[in-house]
Amino acid sequence: MATILYARVSTLEQTIDHQRTQAEAAGFKIDKVISDNGVSGVNVPLAERPQGRRLFDVLRSEDTLVVRWVDRLGRSYLDVCDTIRAFMRQGVVIRTVINNMTFDGATKDPMQMAVRDALIAFMAATAQAQAEATKAAQKAGIAHAKAAEGAKAYKGRKPSFTRAQLTQVTDMLGKQVGVSEIAAEAQLSRQTVYRIIESPVAAEAALAAWDL
């Protein structure tokens, strides 16, 4: 029985090592790390990613697959649901670092199965909703920045956060994480986190104005 961490990073600011450190700090003893770099979870299903395909070959019955959260597996509702259920049919246990969730196909009790499947559906829907919200905010921010540029408006103070940090903050907000924990995890001040919460569109616009 092996414990395998699957990590996905899509920006230069994110790192595989950070996701492994988080997993180990949560008590997981990782035997192997499989990772995809620069791959979008929105547009590319897990089975179509170079190392995502490898997961299906490497994982065996009674192995444990660890992910930071279900959004590492995908940002599409159908993709996340299908992927988790496919692994469970293989006898693989899926566990998340955030919220310490466990998805196990071993149970045969219909009530437990119903609760488990409803939770999978909810988390998959949350992952897609967050991805769509982030994409919409990015579009609004870019549009706002273009309008400001057209009017030759002052582009304002340079943002104190990166795009990766903004994405991290919005992701953690969707998981009902407190402001202090978000600030510590994203390495931002509480004031910066509050500004992002108050106006995510303005945050996107600031990044776009500075071409960040």
> Radius of gyration in whole Å, from Cα?
19 Å
The total of beta strands comes to: 5
Strand order across the largest sheet: 2-1-3-4-5
Tell me the domain tally: 2
The portion of residues forming beta strands comes to 5-15%
Listing every helix as H and every strand as E from the N terminus to the C terminus, the arrangement reads: EHEHEHEEHHHHH
Approximate helicity band: 40-55%
- The CATH top-level class label of the largest domain: Alpha Beta
Continuous helix count: 8
CATH topology of the largest domain: Rossmann fold
Describe this structure in words.
There is one protein chain. By secondary structure, the protein is α/β, with parallel strands linked by helices. The chain folds into two domains: 3-106, Resolvase, N-terminal catalytic domain (Rossmann fold, 3-Layer(aba) Sandwich), CATH 3.40.50.1390; 132-209, no CATH class. Helix content is 53%, strand content 11%. The chain contains eight helices and five strands. A five-stranded mixed β-sheet has the order 2-1-3-4-5, with helices on both faces. The chain starts with a strand and ends with a helix.
Summary?
With 212 residues, the chain is an alpha/beta fold.
Task: Walk me through the topology.
Blueprint lengths: L2 E7 L6 H10 L6 E6 L12 H9 L5 E4 L9 H13 L3 E4 L5 E2 L6 H41 L12 H12 L4 H8 L3 H9 L1 H10 L3
Parallel strand pairs: 1-2, 1-3, 3-4
Antiparallel strand pairs: 4-5
Helix pairs in contact: 3-4, 4-8, 5-6, 6-7, 7-8
